Structure formats: C-alpha cells, structure tokens
Amino acid sequence: MRYLTAGESHGPQLTAIIEGVPSNLPFSVEKINFQLERRQKGHGRGRRMQIEKDQVKVLSGVRHGLTTGAPITLVVENKDWTHWQNIMSVEPVEEGEARRRVSRPRPGHADLNGAIKYHQRDMRNILERSSARETTMRVAVGAVARQLLEAFGIQVAGQVTQIGEVVAERIELPIDEQIEVTENSPVRCLDKDAELKMMQLIDNAKEDGDSLGGIVEVRVEGLPIGLGSHVQWDRKLDGRLAQAVLSIQAFKGVEIGIGFEAAGKPGSQVHDEIVWSEENGYTRSTNRAGGLEGSMTNGMPLIVRGVMKPIPTLYKPLMSVDIDTKEPFSASIERSDSCAVPAASVVAEAAVAFEIARAMCEKFPSDSLDDMLENVVQYKAYTEQF
Ligand SMILES: Cc1cc2nc3c(=O)[nH]c(=O)nc-3n(C[C@H](O)[C@H](O)[C@H](O)COP(=O)(O)O)c2cc1C
Ligand SMILES: C=C(O[C@@H]1CC(C(=O)O)=C[C@@H](OP(=O)(O)O)[C@H]1O)C(=O)O
Is the distance from CB of 38 to CB of 20 less than 8 angstroms? Predict the structure, then answer.
C-alpha cells in the first residue's frame, strides 16, 4: 500500500490517492468523516477550524460499498478557499495586493529554506504546501487503513499524555475507546486532573501570545507476531513507524515502549521476560519494548509516542528578516493555533494505522480481502502451535 497527498492549505481542495488497498473491503465514508471531525477539534485550535467542515468525497476505487482493488481517490474541500480564490488563482494575476506575496519568512516554518531550494521569491508558494492542513488527508487515508485493520480485529487508539510542562499520570488507554474531543475531554487526555491543568496552560499561553507542544501516545492491539522484519534496514517496523510519525508537521521525536527512559535503566529493568500459556501462547510478562522486538511485532500491544514542538507562529512574534530589504522585522500575524497537540494525536493514530496496514499487506497476500483473511487465519493457527 502507498499513498500520495496533494493540495494547498488555501487552494480549492485536498486530494489523496491510495494504491494497494485489497479488493472487497467493506468501505464506510462515515468512518472517514468521523476521523476527520476528531482531527478538527481540541482546546487551543484557531479560527480556521470554525470555517472548515471536513467531509470526504470518494472519487474512485470503491463501488457499492466495497473496494475494487483500484486506486482510491479521496478529496476534501477547503471551505476557506472562497476567500482566497484570487490569491490562489491558477491563472496569472497582476502583481500587487491580489497575490498576498510573502517576503517575510516565519521562524520555525519551511518558508525560507523552501524558498531558497525551489527558487521562490514569494514564500506563499512554500507555506501553502508545508501547512499542516495536509494532515486532513493523512487522517482520511489512515481512516481507510483502520477499516482494513478492523477486518482482522486490529484496533488503534490514541491520547495526549503531555502539554507543555503538564505530564499526565500514565493511564492505559482502553483500546476500543476513540477519545473524542468533547466538553469533558477537550485535550484528549485520560488523566482528568492533568487535563484541567493542560487547558489552563493553553489559555495562559494564548493570552501571552505564546504556543505549546506536547506528547501523544498511540496504542495498537490485536497484532499478529512478525509484522516488519529484522533482515533489512528499510523493512524494520520501528524505523518505519518513526518515519511515519516524524513526518507529521512539527513532530520532533518518537519513542517506542519505554523509549528514552531505557537510557537510564539497567537491562534487567528494560527487557521483557518471555512466557507461554495454553490460552495465550507466547507473551511477555511486561511490555517495556512496546510490542516490538528485532523490529518485528511480538504480539503485545504496540506503543508509539511522538513529541510535537510548540506551534511556531506566535501572536507575540519572533524576529526574522525581510528577503527584499534584508531588514529585521517582527513577524506579522493573521491567525494560528496556539496548541494543536489534541488534533495531532488523531494524525499520529492515522500515521501509525497506515504503516501497520501496509505491513499487513506485505506479510499476507493482499490482492483481495478474501485472500488476506484466509492467510491470516492460517498464520494465526500456525503461531498458536509453534
Ligand atoms: C494539526 C496541526 C496543526 C498545526 N497548526 C499550526 C498553526 O496553526 N500555525 C503554525 O504556525 N503551525 C502549525 N502547525 C505546525 C506547522 O505546520 C509546522 O511546524 C511547520 O510546517 C514546520 O514544519 P516542522 O515543524 O515539521 O519543521 C500545526 C501542526 C499540526 C500537526
Ligand atoms: C488548516 C489547518 O491547520 C492550519 C495549519 C497551519 C500550519 O501552518 O501548519 C496554519 C493554520 O492555517 P491558517 O493560517 O489557514 O489558519 C492552521 O489553521 C488544519 O489543521 O486543517
């Protein structure tokens, strides 16, 4: 399975093409829209999310509720585009105000490096594509991957475990809970005391013209043993998950299982003992490895965490340099999120779901769901008697 996304933040629409989804998979548009709605919410989001109402249109690869095996095309409209039609026009428009040219790069963004690399004196041509608006399509694609995983009883869930300096108490995420952003769960954190503090911190940061990052955790259960491989660097599942999560805008670190904590502990407190029982077969007495050993799934829950940096656009702006005059300036502000960690946790769930679905399609024949189901059942029977 592979996918590409296209589309600008303020262009007419966003597009994704996914190839390699097995045929005959029951396909639900509502399930995609449900995930899209989850991504739009969360305490700390800016005004743009009040304009957008992300809903997917499926333009290929699905017929009468089932995938056909052909590439699946998904599109989501940018409602804000109506306000940007001239600025984002495909046809040339006159120099001047109509273009809303950007000559002042924002610190922490792709603007300056992208402009130099792609020979663009108007940095709008960079920022429109580097924007995290693109994560809409990653979530849409991830929602298709989740539907494939569901067919094998594999579930994916996510939560926020840290915002700024507020660290949530470690509470195991119930795998069948898709935490939605509601009045009772504005930050998607299971530790409700910490969540109140997180909200306060976000409000304070917003008032101070500042921004916040945090940590998100994704959990996957129901995995067969042996997804990924130890034999080649680019088949190692830990490396692939890290790439999937680190490629989300503003993500700067990934850990699996106890991750960075392992550095400060002796081996006896890091590795998990192997046990066997008639009922469960081979398991581990602890799960510090987070479900991966030797870059392959070991059947235990997969635990992946990602660190998101604070949003770079600040209402109390940082200094930068105008590329026309080379004069210093203090960045001007239109609108921005002050904290997008709750939304990003939904994106991280999607990124992990896609990578796991891809690994499933590599491990098992995957032209059709029928082939795949048959092979997964056989493989599970084999692992049980191993
Ligand atoms: C869901 C989400 C929403 C974001 N919203 C904003 C935003 O409103 N303003 C902003 O400056 N950056 C925002 N970002 C982060 C930038 O897109 C990102 O920092 C930038 O593209 C530079 O990429 P890098 O941080 O990965 O280097 C958001 C990121 C995510 C995942
Ligand atoms: C549009 C989304 O997030 C955007 C991501 C983003 C950025 O720079 O990454 C900047 C903001 O864009 P705008 O300036 O249009 O408000 C966010 O709103 C979204 O998540 O759907």
Answer: no
Give 227 Cα–ligand 1 centroid separation in angstroms.
Answer: 31
Pull the structure tokens for residue 248. 């989300």
Question: Would you list the domain boundaries of the chain?
Answer: 2-385
Residue type, 252: K
Task: Give me the tens of pLDDT residue by residue for the chain, a chain 386 residues long.
Answer: 999 999 999 999 999 999 999 999 999 999 999 999 999 999 999 999 999 999 999 999 999 999 999 999 999 999 999 999 999 999 998 877 778 899 999 999 999 999 999 999 999 999 999 999 999 999 999 999 999 999 999 999 999 999 999 999 988 878 877 777 777 778 999 999 999 999 999 999 999 999 999 999 999 999 999 999 999 999 999 999 999 999 999 999 999 999 999 999 999 999 999 999 999 999 999 999 999 999 999 999 999 999 999 999 998 889 999 999 999 998 667 688 999 999 999 999 999 999 999 999 999 999 999 999 999 999 999 999 99
Question: Which residues contact residue 133 at a Cβ distance below 8 angstroms, ignoring those fewer than 6 apart?
Answer: 7, 8, 9, 14, 78
In the numeric block, which tokens belong to residue 116? 């130099």
Element (H, E) at 6: strand 2-6
- Give residue 329's Cα distance to chain centre: 33
Instruction: Enter the tokens of residue 92.
Output: 């040339």
The CATH architecture one would assign to domain 2-385 is 4-Layer Sandwich (3.60)
336 lines ligand 1 (CB under 6 A): yes
What is the residue type of 220?
V
Among 337, 345, 347, residue to substitute to test ligand 2 (most atoms within 8 Å of Cβ): 337
Kindly give the number of the ligand 2 atom that is closest to the alpha carbon of 46. 18
